[in-house]
Amino acid sequence: MSELQRKWWKEAVVYQIYPRSFKDSNGDGIGDLRGIIEKLDYIKSLGVDVVWLNPIFKSPNDDNGYDVSDYCGIMDDFGTMEDFDEMLKGFHERGIKLVLDLVANHSSDEHFWFQESRKSRDNPYRNYYHWWEAEKGTPPKRWSFFDEEANAWKYDEQTDSYYLHIFSVKQPDLNWENPKLRQEIYDAVRFWFEKGVDGFRMDVITFISKDLPFKELPEKYNGNFVQYYAEGPKLHEYLQEFNREVLSKYDIMTVAEGPGTNTENVLDFVDEDRHELNMSYHFDISNLGHKDLAKKLMLPEGWDFREFKEIFIKWDKVFDKKGWGTVYLGNHDFPRMVSRWGNDATEFRELSSKMLTTFLLTMRGTVYYYFGDELGMTNIRFDNIEDYRDIMTINLHKLISSEGGDLDEFMWSQKLIARDNGRTPFQWNDSENAGFTSGKPWLKVNPNYKEINAEAQDTTENSPLNYFRNLIKFRKENLELIYGKSEYYDLENESVFAYSRELNGRKLLILVNFKENEATVNVPFDLEKAKHLFGNYADFDGTLKPYQAVILEV
Ligand code: GLC
Ligand code: CA
Questions:
Q1: CB proximity list for 224: less than 8 A, separation 6 or greater
Q2: Fewer CB in 10 Å around end: N or C, the chain?
Q3: Longest CA–CA separation in the chain, Å
Q4: What's the rounded Cα separation, in Å, for the pair 444 and 382?
Q5: How far apart are CA 400 and CA 53, in angstroms?
């Protein structure tokens, strides 16, 4: 491995914080920047290298910050620019880099640009958004993910036109065709880089180029809007311009949220020779086990482990020679990792949560680890629609209800995958509201905080929290886990993910049992001679116990 290939963002464990749910400092029930400042030492204690914060820019919060009304201001709920500066300094003093969330496919309808744009057809900001004049007739169908009627066109009386909103009606899509708009976005990004921010996660960046003029959906997409939105004709032209004019000028990292990316096209984004972005993350894993992706309905029989393995392997192979991958098992758009991929029953919760942590930290690719997963926090599984705060769940409920669909099936599916499962407040201790707030939390706290909380785990030697800390240390001391070549074994195995990571002649074998049964594995190594280096059980005798994960030297 030459020094040239080494990059800080390749070696990083990225810890993602959903600021609304991390720590409330002023009792209004909403997490904020001063809350993060209070907890900087906790974050430092984890050993993570980078923190990614979900959007903190000014926003009316139709979609919790994914609707920005000012790209250079801090959301009122979260604090002030002084708080931001202090927080950034606090991270940097602790050797932690800070990555923000750039939501540039759309803005809030309360952004000044949109307020102007909707005023008249000849307003200077008109072309900051996508408009369809009503005299042309009803615009061709476009799917909206968050609209009560799934319609991405909203009629606006003032100018007798429709505007495009792939997400909620309060999230109009920005028009990247307009060079002025692109410069506004670049200016905002420069503003944060000049402050010392270390990178951006780019929200649905694959959607920024629209297939103009809006035609009927080409047949080849056959209702698959995600794919269609992600293959706009000027996407790479824009990303290259963005890179040339802004990104390449700083030592920062970029990661695309990549809905619609696949193993055939992902290198177009992250091949270093193309000068676009550093990394991208895909949705193939999170899409597993669905009966209906658009309506978020799940299959009663669950997800398939063999398919899970195939997807991870297929994606890893793409980056054998070029580019760089990412691994994650949860974020603010998905349920809790242990509930989705492990087993959150009392007996297995801690074991399976450590198992998943082992898997994430030993696969090739930059690790994105979602806050609270280090404690094994679980899905809250609301029974009532009134408990949900997420616009996606609320509006899909309305849509399915208006279509006379099966709401019981929907509510059951939401218990498995609703985004609010992963957004409940962080469980700090066993005091009221889990120590998250002295007020009324914006989203209910999971009642299991008395058993699952950071304070209790901090002092318990073999807690999931300490396991995470120790494994991060181990990973840093064993570069095989970062840069090592990967090889996969026993693909047919119904329980075990088996792979090795090899660098400069030293080989580590990782065996991860994803099931509650004991399991054996067929690998070309003498397991009796292998040295047990790390794992979630005290030892390894050749048979994997329920949810056992081991790192062996072979
Ligand atoms: C991305 C975000 C999600 C948000 C959506 C619209 O998928 O991760 O949370 O709701 O984009 O901005
Ligand atoms: Ca607050």
A1: none
A2: N
A3: 77
A4: 9
A5: 32
Neighbouring CB atoms inside 10 A of 470's CB total 14
User: What single-letter DSSP state applies at residue 482?
Assistant: H
Does any ligand 1 atom lie closer than 6 A to the CB of residue 52? no
142 three-class SS: coil
CA distance 505 to 414: 47
Tokens found for residue 215: 């035609």
Distance 216 CA to ligand 1 centre (A): 25
Active site residues: 203, 257
Domains and CATH numbers, the chain: 7-105+179-471 (3.20.20.80), 112-164 (3.90.400.10), 483-553 (2.60.40.1180)
Query: Is the minimum distance from the CB of 390 to ligand 1 under 6 angstroms?
Result: no
CB-CB neighbours of 528 under 10 Å = 7
Q: Which two tokens stand for residue 553?
A: 């030297």
Residue located nearest, by CA, to atom 12 of ligand 1: 66
Q: Find the 17 Cα to ligand 2 centroid distance in Å.
A: 15
**414 in Cβ contact with 296 (< 8 Å):** yes
Nearest CA-CA partner of 173 in 205, 196, 198: 205
Question: Whole-angstrom Cα distance, residue 35 to residue 51?
Answer: 15
3-state secondary structure 51-62: EEECCCEECCCC
Can you tell me the distance from the alpha carbon of 537 to that of 547, in angstroms, rounded to the nearest whole number? 9
DSSP H or E stretch at residue 415: helix 407-417
Q: Is 440 exposed, middle or buried (0-12, 13-18, 19+ CB in 10 A)?
A: exposed
Residue 434 confidence (pLDDT): 98
Whether 181 and 128 have beta carbons less than 8 Å apart is answered as yes
Measured CA to CA, the distance from residue 504 to residue 484 in angstroms comes to 8
* Cα–Cα distance list, 164 to 108, 161, 171, 177 (Å): 12, 10, 9, 14
- Tell whether ligand 1 has an atom less than 6 A from the beta carbon of residue 204: yes
Residue of minimum CA distance from atom 6 in ligand 1: 66
pTM given for the model: 0.98
Q: How far is the CA of 314 from the centre of ligand 1 (A)?
A: 25
Ligand 1 mean position to 351 CA, how many Å? 31
Decide: 257 in ligand 1 pocket, CB within 6 A: yes
Predicted confidence (pLDDT) at residue 4 exceeds the cutoff of 60: no
The continuous run of DSSP H or E covering 410 comes out as helix 407-417
Four-CA torsion 423, 425, 430, 433, nearest 10 degrees? -130
pLDDT exceeds cutoff 60 at 2:
no
Nearest protein CA to atom 4 of ligand 1, as residue: 66
From 203, 296, 368, the mutation candidate for ligand 1 (largest count of ligand atoms within 8 A of CB) is 203
Q: pLDDT (tens digit, 9 = 90+) per residue, 394-415?
A: 999 999 999 999 999 999 999 9
* Ligand 1: nearest atom to the Cα of 419: 9
User: Using the 8-state DSSP alphabet, how is residue 203 labeled?
Assistant: T
Tell me the C-alpha distance between 47 and 96, whole Å.
9
pLDDT digits (tens, 9 = 90+) for 453-504: 999 999 999 999 999 999 999 999 999 999 999 999 999 999 999 999 999 9
Ligand 1 atom with minimal separation from the 331 CA: 8
